[in-house]
Amino acid sequence: MAGITGYGARIPYFRLEKKKIGEAWGTYGAGEKAVANHDEDSVSLAVAAAVDCGKETADADCLYLATTTGPYGEKGSASTAAMALGLKKDVRTMDITGSLKGGISGLLSGLEQAESGIKTLVAMSDCRLGAPQGPYEQVLGDGAAAFVLGNDDIIAELEASESANQEVMAYWRSSTDRFLQTGEDRFASTKYVEILMAAMGNFAKQTGATIKDFDKVVLDAPSAKLHKLTARMLKVSPEQLIEGMYDSIGHTGCANVGLMLVSALSNAEPGERILVAAFGEGCHIAAFKVTEKIVSFKPKRPLKEQLANKDNSVRYTDYLKWRGIIETEPPRRPAVPKPSQPALYRGYDQNLGFIGSRCKKCGTPQFPKQRVCVHCQAKDEMEDYSFKNKTARLATYTVDYLAASVAPPTVIGVVDFQGGGRMLAEVTDCRPEQMRIGMELDFCFRRLQVADGISNYFWKAVPKRGGTND
Amino acid sequence: MTRGIKDKVAIIGMGCTQFGEHWDKSTDDLLVDAAYEAFADAGLGPEDIDAYWLGTMQSGYAGIVLSGPLKSQYKPVTRVENMCATGSDAFRNACYAVASGAYDMAMAIGVEKLKDSGYSGLTIAEPPHDGTKLDVTAPAAFSLLAPAYFNKFGVDPKQGKEVLAKIAWKNHKNGSLNPKAQYRTEIPMEKICSSPMVAAPLGILDCSGVADGAAAAIIVRAEDAEKYCKQPTFVKALSVSAGPGHGALHQDFDFTSIPENCAAAKDAYDQAGIKNPRQELSMAEVHDCFTPTELVIYEDLGFSKRGEGWKDVLAGTFELAGELPVNPDGGLKSFGHPIGASGLRMLYEAYLQFQGKAGQRQLKDPKLALTHNLGGYPWQCVCFISIVGSQLG
To answer: How many whole angstroms separate alpha carbon A395 and alpha carbon A321?
Structure first.
């Protein structure tokens, strides 16, 4: 027996009102889409979604990271995520790239190995771009979901699954394309529906189960219109259908079906059955049965809370600038230098894992790691000390209008941790006017800079917006 | 223990270029101008100097930055770098060399050519690192002092902003009287208070400027000084403190004081035998890189009681006609801050004041002057303090 033992989600804090896109092009737009901040990418979102799963991830044997928008063509990012999450040194990591159904491919493979006791964490995320002025600019959004899969303390057990393979050029990006390509809409949508209907037919034949046997149905569809259409063709009732987040988040690529499954699990009762259908060069179908353990599992930041906590004042030009779609006046400061690869290597435990040191003589935590204690000057009496999930408060702060940034001004905080330790850190996902001395902060994993093709990640402070600490 | 070299060495000649945007002068030009002005001042030539200490943060590496333009004929040149205390530390090392008896005559010279960078603010070339070093500009780093100070000592932020503006106003007023300053006009309080924000609550006029410049001092043993100069400047104390970074790591640092200032001040006062700096000093040149820095310096250096520096500012204590004039030459605010030159520029003001050559800024019978630099960040820096006097004893 294998199933889902934990889940998490990450919706970026910033939202872009689609009407702003419409206004810019003299067309139409309604609703919002979630946009990753300039310091977020698929890797940082995936890590945040995994963090949201809570302590469940600590003993994972295997990590899959599924995205079509990773930072590298060559070099995986699952290893980055594993270190950021503090997973075991012998964790098996795998990057799943290229396909929108990659998230559910990872989920199904993970469930198979969970059967034999290999606890697997699957994180799925995407930050895809639709070309400016095109329809997909409004359709696509950014987000991530994560699931822990195991054979113990299961909250949703896998009952059956079915896959279909079908080569089709419906949606694609070549290795050099920045923006999603699609041919005639009618072809893509017709084939999408056809493939899904055929797979559902097969699934019904294999399992004997039909749509009405399920309490909740998660239907991944490329757009809100196709979501409605397929639901109707499959005779899914409005009560069964898990709402697509097309007008609040946008289609989040690899994470889309995952976020809908998180949405389904968030409101699930023991005994309910959930059907999941994911598309991309064919499709995957999976059926879950919710167990009584669902009652005791709580993600750190419930999806509902993440949907409600937002800042939708992002300008369309901000978004274009964050993504580097438009060229703007460069800051009159030197370009960010490429980080030193040996220095990066030496610092991974500390900088990705957010691990500092604590003096064994006087107990003072310190970040970054020190050899001589700042408090009692004892030499080489340090032990590793994790700063992750510690309650932190803003001691003081400044707003830097001069520092080079894609999104000036930069807010710099002097942050004090409960239990000791201080860090001077950038505060992100905030507006200067929201800052108050003494306010509570969380720390989140972010992309610090991209220089000469190297994406460099670190931890930044963010105003606490709900959620729980360990 | 720190023994110091009180009254063992003296300055007998100085030179200082005008500070400013020297689009038409190179680092070489500035060095030659400052050195030859000092030679002329002392009635000496390069052949008389036995060794050089060159201070520059990033206008060139090694002693050849000076020996090339000066053609100093294979004499020793040591290049010194200690961030904003660079020029001062070149002076300190030259003084120690003369005091040790190793050389009869040394020159300390500092230079910085900042305006060739193509950027408007100061930029520092960092050694390769892992990229996680906090990207914070100097004004942002020092702006942390202001709200912390206001909060701790119950100063209303609006009044606090005026206190800071008054420091800038005072320094610009003094600078308006100084022909070598970069900015030589008074700036009204309202303009300072409403200048564009750089790092809240600091506006652009709370910040020192960026300039090119060079300054030089010739140092001999104190007993030889009067052979060259009617009114030498005698060295009473030289002190440097380098911080462990306590403020970035430890929660007990509250951004209302810079411990390096306190440590260097205590050491310098001990060396010079000063008990009450506010009474005993005739003037001070301090590192007013940003207005809150100067406010905190008043208290760290014992000019004001803790928490009362802001009241002294409002009372005019540190103005030219006040009880203890601070930055009578106009400070970094009026001069800009060519890093390697600034410390020697400060000593130049003391030197002029002792000789009665400070023009409209002249103080009455100054006896003891303090110069102070601070390089780095409020949470970790190097601090330099010198005390110099017009008389021995």
So the answer is: 31
The CATH code of domain A3-322 reads 3.40.47.10
Indicate the domain borders of chain A. 3-322, 351-463
pLDDT in tens, chain A (470 residues): 899 999 999 999 999 999 999 999 999 999 999 999 999 999 999 999 999 998 889 899 999 999 999 999 999 999 999 999 999 999 999 999 999 999 999 999 999 999 999 999 999 999 999 999 999 999 999 999 999 999 999 999 999 999 999 999 989 999 999 999 988 878 888 888 889 889 999 999 999 999 999 999 999 998 999 899 989 989 999 999 999 999 999 999 999 999 999 999 999 999 999 999 998 889 999 999 999 999 999 999 999 999 999 999 999 999 999 999 999 988 878 888 899 999 999 999 999 999 999 999 999 999 999 999 999 999 999 999 999 999 999 999 999 998 888 888 999 999 999 999 999 999 999 999 999 989 999 999 999 999 999 999 999 999 998 876 54
Q: In what order do the strands lie in the sheet with B283-285?
A: B77-80, B51-55, B105-112, B213-221, B9-16, B233-242, B380-389, B368-377, B283-285
- Rounded Cα distance between A46 and B352, Å, is 65
Domains and CATH numbers, chain B: 9-115+212-233 (3.40.47.10), 138-208+235-389 (3.40.47.10)
What distance in Å separates the CA atoms of residue A301 and residue A462, rounded to the nearest whole number? 14
Token code pair at residue B74: 């294979």
3-class DSSP string for A66-112: EECCCCCCCCCCHHHHHHHCCCCCCCEEEEEECCCCHHHHHHHHHHH
**Numbers of helices and strands, H then E, in chain B:** 15, 11
Closest CA to A316 of A48, A445, A137, A102: A137
Q: How far, in Å, CA of A126 to CA of A12, rounded?
A: 11
Residue B114 contacts A where some CB pair is shorter than 8 Å: no
Q: Is residue A140 within 8 Å of residue A45, measured between CB atoms?
A: no
B195 near B203, Cβ under 8 Å?
yes
Interface predicted TM-score (ipTM): 0.92
Sequence-ordered list of residues with C-beta below 8 angstroms from that of A358, at least 6 positions apart, any chain: A364, A365, A366, A382, A383, A384, A385, A420
Q: Which residues contact A214 (CB under 8 A, 6 or more apart)?
A: A240, A273, A274, A275, A287
Q: Which residues of B touch A403 (CB under 8 A)?
A: 135-137, 140
Task: Considering the candidates B22, B287, B337, B372, report the single residue annotated as catalytic.
Answer: B337
**Residue A252 to residue A381: CA distance in whole angstroms:** 47
Encoded amino acid at B320, one letter:
L
What DSSP element (H or E) covers B247? helix B246-249
Predicted TM-score of the model (pTM): 0.94
Q: Which two tokens stand for residue B230?
A: 């009617």
- For the record, the structure tokens of B6 come out as 């009180």
Mutate to test the interface with B, among A333, A357, A400 (most CBs of B within 10 A): A400
Any chain A CB within 8 A of the CB of B58? no
Task: Report the distance separating Cα A323 and Cα A38, nearest Å.
Answer: 7
* Phi (first) and psi of residue B78, to 5 degrees: -110, 130
Closest approach of B151 to chain A, Cα-based (Å):
10
